[in-house]
Fold Menaquinone-dependent protoporphyrinogen IX oxidase.
Amino acid sequence: MTPSRSADRGDDRSVAILFASCYGHTRRYADWLTEQLQATGCTVRLIDARAAEDPVGLLAGAEGILDVIIGLGGNYGGSVQGMGAFADAVRARPDARALFATVAWASPTQTETIRKLHEKAIPADIAPRVTAFHLRGGIDHPRLSLKHRTKMLALKTYLMSKPESARTEDDRETLQFWGQTKDFTDPAALEPIVAAALAE
């Protein structure tokens, strides 16, 4: 069994951050989170789940203590990037605390939408161990892939068919910033995740 660190070691903890980013918003959060945790005295391993040849192997085969695994994944049309690697890492390190944050256009105030997203994305076998969070990302229309552009066009058609009175604030912002680049990322939004990583 992988060793775990006792609570009396304070904030000198070992943290692994696995992230999967398509357009940079999730990567930005991963970098900020690394800086914030390192500032508390944590040792942080930052792993790009899309670029690493074997991201899970980096953790499963690592020697020594791993206190916390944090996953950050962008949500694209209901598909959360990096969840597979995060889930495998959590299974490989059963003594580590598990935190996961989705990153998406949706505002954190859309609690029911986010709850359903987390319920769908997090595998049932690890769900009891995972504390889930949500971070607001952004949109970069000029850089969207053909697949994501097609999904966004379908979303726009749907939103335009809704009466104005039935549209949420997220719906209105989607239409307002259509074709543009809009960034809602905020390093202060990471405070609850940092607190959870450091909690006894």
Notes: Helices lie at 25-39, 55-60, 83-92, 111-121, 146-161, 169-176, 191-198. The first strand starts at residue 14 and ends at 20. The chain is about 35% helix and 20% strand. The chain has a mean pLDDT of 84.
